Amino acid sequence: MNIILLGAPGSGKGTLSEFLCEKNAFTQLSTGDLFRDNISNKTDLGIEAQKYMNEGKLVPDSVTNSMVEKYLESKAKDLIFDGFPRTSDQASALDDMLAKINDQIDKVVYLDIDESVLLGRLTGRLICKVCKRSFHKVNRKPLKEGICDFDGGELITRPDDQEDKIKTRLEAYNTQTAPLIEFYKDKIIKVDADNCTPEELYNSVIEVLGA
Ligand code: AMP
To answer: Which residues pair with 6 in a beta bridge?
Structure first.
């Protein structure tokens, strides 16, 4: 089963993917993580993507789509698409890429959340440099400050989790990504992501997926 997680930045896609991968053997494809890996490794793709990410803007579709196509050459089973697609061009390209390998998107889980909650979530977010799991300065504190509970990696604040960048990212979500709710209307499952812990969100998703 291939699933897309659709939702605004900070709606909980990353943590939900983490749970689905650990407990249900899905594989996460996070385009944000792939871009950040390319930036760390100083690849040409990373240098190109960084220009947009630093501003909170979307990386152009052509760059993003070819990165995903390359990824799908090696892994293409039981995928969780986290942060992809983000535009209707990407959604059509994904349909074509999957059709070429006789595969498809089965469900689209839309994490519905009030925008007022997102700013606090994102400005307090901490990410492990090694395993990419996310923590929060207040709501999901690591056992030891600045250190990942799972692998001892350093916890950092993402450069685009600053207030001015967050505003641009939310604008990009509202104008370019939210229209995908209509694009996927036959496959979408809406889940209330307000006021719930990551465990509660995971449980509601599993229930609606029947996974
Ligand atoms: P994320 O880790 O999903 O929050 O993504 C962080 C940033 O990476 C976004 O603000 C974009 O600049 C870039 N990015 C990630 N996924 C995509 C995508 N599917 N299309 C365009 N840009 C993306």
So the answer is: 110
The CA–CA distances, whole Å, from 15 to 41, 50, 80, 152, 182 equal: 24, 23, 12, 18, 25
Task: Evaluate if pTM is beyond 0.85.
Answer: yes
121 a catalytic residue: no
202 touches ligand 1 (CB under 6 Å): no
- For the chain, which domains are there? 3-26+78-209 (3.40.50.300)
Which residue among 137, 140, 158, 187 is the active-site one? 158
Q: State the DSSP H helix or E strand holding residue 125, giving kind and residue range, or none if neither.
A: strand 125-128
Closest CA to 65 of 41, 47, 45, 42: 45
Task: Give the pLDDT confidence of 122-140 residue by residue, as tens digits.
Answer: 999 999 999 999 999 998 9
